[in-house]
Amino acid sequence: MKKIESSLTNMVLVLTGVAVIMGGILALVNDVTSGPIAQQKEKALADGIRAVMACDGITVANTDTVRQNDAKGKELTFIIYQTQDAQGKDLGAAVESTTGGFGGDLKVLVGFNPDGKILGYTLLEHAETPGLGAKADKWFQKGEKGDIIGKDPKEKLTVSKDGGQVDAITASTITSRAFLLAVNNAYNAYKATPATDAETGASKQHHN
Fold first, then answer.
1. pTM of the prediction?
2. Distant-in-sequence contacts of 80-86, Cβ < 8 A, 24+ apart
């Protein structure tokens, strides 16, 4: 009996030791990789802002966080990156907007000029079906079937199936609706920022 108890004690001690060592290794790996991952995300965001604003020589002059409730009362959070050129001229803003797609959250970055017209967009995150909903990263770009570039969401963008002016992705109406909702919400958040004129959507200069 003592031999069995001794074996059980040894097993518990060994397993505990292994767990402690593995925990230490995982913590070390997480510590080593968290920095590069954060840097990659920052670079991806910076590249995304340049892409959606259709301009390379820009700086983020100010960052605002706007919270608004959707039609169902759910609070949505938007991040507004107010941009300027090298001379300090206001170029508009890039807006992060998230909504629920077919497969999960759909996070979009949309660029608006000072008048509120869409300059460009990119998908930051999505969980849509490959080959269908995932087409949203191309479908609504300039020259494509669902082209929204240059449009003014002052008049809400909707798919043609709902009486709107935008062609939905083939066999992916739900994703198309979610995408356009994210864009419309981004526009409303942009207008609601302190640096934006509520009537015209034109950004005012920041004085930091």
1. 0.73
2. 80/189, 80/190, 80/193, 80/195, 81/49, 82/193, 82/195, 82/203, 82/206, 83/49, 83/53, 83/55, 83/58, 83/59, 84/58, 84/59, 85/55, 85/57, 85/58, 85/59, 86/57, 86/59
What are the tokens at 183? Answer: 């864009």
Q: What pLDDT digit, counting tens, does each position of 6-25 carry?
A: 677 777 777 776 777 877 67
Instruction: Judge contact between 82 and 61, C-beta under 8 A.
Output: yes
User: Per residue in 35-51, pLDDT tens?
Assistant: 666 677 777 788 899 99
Three-state SS string over 71-110 comes to: CCCCEEEEEEEEEEECCCCEEEEEEEEEEECCCCEEEEEE
Burial class of residue 202 in the structure, from the number of CB atoms within 10 Å of its CB (0-12 exposed, 13-18 middle, 19+ buried) = middle
DSSP state of 202: P
Contact status, residue 172 vs residue 132, Cβ threshold 8 Å = yes
Residue 48: CB partners within 8 Å, gap ≥ 6? 94, 109, 122, 124
Place of tokens 């849509």: 128
